[in-house]
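Morning!

This is the sequence you dropped in the shared folder:
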Amino acid sequence: MTDHAPGRLRHRGRGYPSTPARVSVGIAGALVAGLALSGCGPSPVDIVEHPVTTTPSRMAGAELQRSAEPEESCAPAPVPAEFPGNGVREVASTDPAEATVEVPRSPERILALGSGAVDVACALGLQDLVVGTSGLPHDADVYLPANLVGLPDLGIAGDWRAEGADFDADAAANAARDLNPDLIVLADSPDPDPDLARALSAVAPTVVYDARSLNWAESTEAIADAYGRPTAGGDLLLDVIDRARFTADATTPRDTWVSLVSVSDGGEIEVQRPDTLGSLMLEAVGAGRPPAQRTRDGQRIGPAPESPPVGDELGGDVIFAVVGGSDRSEKSAREAFATERWTDLDAVGARRMFVVDRAVWEGSGPVAARAVLDDIRSSINGIAPDG
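The structure's back. Tokens below.
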């Protein structure tokens, strides 16, 4: 387990208030990027449904803590459909050629093409309705259950598709047709192929959503709406807000300079991009950041005029190092962590560096967001075990 570092001012952690909280769909749609820390806390039921467990990371000298094991990360039972019965209803789509799409009132066979689409299905307990996926990151099994990660993968989702990857829209549609979906939810791409959406639409109603990390909260709401559960989608966002408030109250992260870095497969260590889910969650809990790493609404901002010069831009009171993305990641990280620049950082010498999974910290959706918050809460005031 993680030891606690002495000498830090910390508020005593408070339990979740018992008042159940709900949020309207309209309000939830405004919860983007940093997530305003307001609202009531979740009920004690959340603690029972999402027990805190510890799983050792693959890297020595660090541990990862999750809100639950991957097999327990999804809601255990499906959230009831809010529009039961047969027939169709209209929902919004970011497809430039089709702003609204008629979808089943209560879909039963979902093709979730994008990590956000899979994440939201898991959070709503719809994992048994998903017949195929695409766009899941490498090592998605660190936070998603095997029955989702092991589904047929079409390999076409825009949010995680390899740059320059080629695919044939008709072949993708044929693969989708073999899965017999009654709803397809597709992650948008920075360079979308209009033929893909058209080909998939010939198979089943296809809703396109904005897959940018900065808009993950709006996308969560849109995906939940397509799944026939818009109010529940708003509740998912409110739960993340409540968890962020709890994390901030329990750990006082504003008192700590939190460094967030990324280790590439080439062994380079650099400050993590500000528009990733992990960076946004640090904003949501009000974490202090080193002057060279300050962010606001997912954008890097310069040091305040009164900020004194500091040392290495990678340094902080505590460091979260994002690792993963390929089979080479662990070897590259070990080499990077042996460099003189890294070992000279104060947080490394004080054993206040924690390895976290790229699949989670660069993920999309409420399940990944909850896991990031649990990493923060479990480690930000801790000391890493000996490696």
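Headline: The two ends are 13 Å apart (CA to CA).

More detail when I'm at my desk.
O.
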